[in-house]
Amino acid sequence: MQPNKPVKWGSKWTDEERELLLKYLKKSYDVMTIADKLERSEGGVEAEIKRIVYEKHKENMLIEDISSELNLTYKSIKQIIKIETEKNIEKEIAYLTKENKLLQLQIDNQRLKKELNSL
Predict the structure, then answer these.
(1) Long-range contacts of residues 39-45, Cβ cutoff 8 Å, at least 24 apart
(2) How many CA atoms are closer than 13 Å to the CA of 67, on its beta-carbon side?
(3) Helix/strand/coil for 62
(4) For tag attachment on the chain, is the N or C end more exposed, with fewer CB atoms within 10 Å?
(5) CA 65 from chain center: how many Å?
């Protein structure tokens, strides 16, 4: 482990840690305090909060309910949802672009085979 990295830096979050994260958010602990208590980096805690918010949004939970459950502002939740949605759209576009290129190669391949067969 490198110096200044929390003990659990980079490791997968457990259900127990997520429950504690939710508990600490409810108690209005700041990210730095939560990170210290969970032996995580602040960035790791922020990333997990974003993941939880977006997951709840995808489950059709109302922003007001997410705000109440996680003790986060309506504005911050909307911002997280917007950013995460944009990221997912970019990933989908990249995937579809690859699929389109593959499909085009398959079409070109079939066309070339037909040309060869006609010779």
Answers:
(1) 39/6, 39/7, 39/8, 40/6, 40/8, 40/9, 41/5, 41/6, 41/9, 44/6, 44/8, 44/9, 44/10, 45/21
(2) 10
(3) coil
(4) C
(5) 20
95 C-beta neighbours (distance < 10 Å), count: 10
Orientation of helix 42-58 relative to helix 31-38, angle to 10°: 100
The count of other CB atoms within 10 Å of the CB of residue 90 is 10
Per-residue pLDDT of 4-61, as tens digits, reads: 787 778 789 999 999 999 999 999 999 999 999 999 999 999 999 999 999 999 999 9
Domain ranges of the chain: 15-118
Tokens describing residue 117: 């067969």
Helices and strands counted in the chain (H then E): 5, 0
For residue 99, give both structure tokens.
Answer: 């699929």
CB atoms within 10 A of CB 33: 14
